[in-house]
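A student in our group prepared the protein record below, which I am reviewing. Here is the record exactly as it was handed to me.
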Amino acid sequence: MRVTLLLCLVLLVPLLMLSFVRADSNGQWTKFSGNPVLGPTPDGWDSDFTTSPVVLFDGAAYRMWYVGGHATGIGIGYANSSDGIMWTKYPQAVLSPGPSGSWDSSRVTVGSVLWSGTLFLMAYRGENATTFTNGAIGVAESKDGISWVKYSGNPVMTPGPADPFLGEPFALRWQITYNMWYAAKSINAPTSPVKIFYATSANGIKWTKWSTPVLSPSSDPNAWDSATVTSPAVVRQDLNFGLWYTGLNQSGTHPQIGYATSTDGVGWSKSTANPILTLGIPGSWDSAGVEQPGVVKGANGYMMYYDGFNATSGARIGLAYAPENFTVPEFELPQVGFLVTVLTCAVACYVHRKR
């Protein structure tokens, strides 16, 4: 009997410790006390708002691309930092809307940026007032992250019957395949929910769309993300994908940020701790909404950049840190493994006593 109980303890303790680590890693992120870290520049091209941060870290420096704007237009800006907190902006937008008549003449917004080993590659959303009023997706490349050349064959993805409205794209290259998660509507109507769709490509130019959404709003009408899931940001760690997204409830106000995991980039499990980044306290700079996450593995762990806003000021960019011991798990299996082990031990003890 003592041997059986000792065996149970040997099996249970490691799993119990693992469950604590996983539970912590799925918890709330901690906002940086000095937020926001990047705001509008008075009298600058981005004097009204700064949103949609996308950040890369090369081991020594951080680079950020973001959406900025003022009364006369919207463009994509750039900033760099040595610590991910203090940022130096490039003085002008680095990607702007195209000339009159082009597919992206009305506005451009950044979706994602990746480093190919020789070039920075950007996936971005554009629209115009005639042919692409519901958005389309284009790509651009740069040697330094500042001077960008748009692909002459843009847009590389356009609306279709299953996704007549296209939102933010996030592209990630894994081995030899480009993967893209993007926001879209299945039905082009004001009340139609925004969902997250998926596509793949061998070259980043010609894309094959997945036929159905891979992440949808909650079916619970009272849930925090029951109306919309949008602005995906994806990280690959080992054999697993982590996806952060913006969710909206039925009121259509006060966005918050959630998290989901997957082993294949298609089947996603939402965290039970969602939303993992919530509104700031009343009166704070992000008390009315937190949205459009960008996640990067920095010098000391995962960091989330996001934009926030309140009732009286335009959006600005803030920073949050991952929980201690954060990883990108496949899904929350420790609890299942823990229960299985408990049952196994119970059966073993019962059989031993019967003997």
User: Anything to note?
Assistant: The longest strand covers residues 165-174.
